[in-house]
């Protein structure tokens, strides 16, 4: 173990024991050393987002520790070697772990079974402490919601118990009255004919009357149900449910597009940036994609919550999902603010023939359906307005006394506020960029355009007109490009 972390050695040893016994994934892997590029078989154990390896399965102390937070893991093809060792390498399956921070070389590993290689890659991709925290917050919100439901059910149960007790008292009182009436009838009609001696015609009449009463009752109930089905309230509820179903379908499609953006473009380009002759740098990859992977993780959680609510149909409760989603939507501000710049960086990178060729290979993937990378980068720009429109339609078919009415109105107002802020930020950013572009067009420069308070009005092709505000000092100039 490295001396730089010896102050936490006891904790690390404890975690290594837990990983060796209860780890998410354990087994032998071949590890490539950085010193002499040789392969050595070690026993590896994965626990949460910490990756341990031991000399063998009986070792007490780990030989090394890797922190997997923010890393990427992908299967890689078999390296090219001479013909003599090709048969041995064809039986091996390789995968690579690229760490998120600079200064640490990727970790190269290999296995003899393809399914075991896939299991290790999947387990390492899911080893994220931040995902566990987000899942814990979601579960905590569900727990709080369930506790509130239980408390409400307890209050309702107490009310029903009180009503049952009152009804039992009323039943006992009515029974007493019936007994008193029967005794009175016995005294008044001592020669009353028994039911067994009743006239057969009277029995037939009673049966017909009983049948008619049942038929009338069923007919009345059928009319009540039909009237409700045709009522405006039922029609509004059907439209509300259809809006929710369409929202789930749209969220499914959006998560699918984000997964294509991350899996078919972002992660492969990160791997390419780590190669010996990278066609693109890590900084350019970060500038183009920014936090699109985080946006994908956020909407995967939101999508799972929507599918869980659909499973409980016809009871559709969505307000608490938006309460969880709203605090995290601020990540869209950075993406929207950076969108125009990311497209410029992408256009500059396409000047490199190697990058352009590699990008066209990625865009030829069947999952992309002929769409370019710029198309996928545009999808998050419209997600916040789409949520606002959906909530507006949902509120139009939600009664004012509905339990979710206030929560949905609050979510809609917050989304509209976030949309206005992003629009203003994009407008200011574009204004500054256009002013700087005009300043570079002027041969001797123009310092007034470097002032961020200047507003871009219009741009043409041939002439520049300088307008002086009358009634002010001559130094105050406003430049207008026609």
UniProtKB/TrEMBL annotation:
Q: Which InterPro entries match?
A: DBL_dom_sf, DH_dom, FYVE_RhoGEF_PH, PH-like_dom_sf, PH_domain
Instruction: List each coiled-coil range.
Output: 147-184
One molecular function GO term is: guanyl-nucleotide exchange factor activity
User: Domain PH: where?
Assistant: 22-129
Membrane-crossing residue ranges in chain numbering: none
Keyword match Iron: no
Its GO CC terms? cytoplasm
- A Pfam family found in this protein is RhoGEF
Question: Which SUPFAM superfamilies does the record associate with it?
Answer: DBL homology domain (DH-domain), PH domain-like
Recorded hits in SMART domains, A to Z, give: PH, RhoGEF
Annotated DH domain residues: 239-425
Top-rank lineage group of the source organism: Eukaryota
Q: Which UniProt keywords apply?
A: Coiled coil
Name of the protein in question:
Ras protein-specific guanine nucleotide-releasing factor 2a
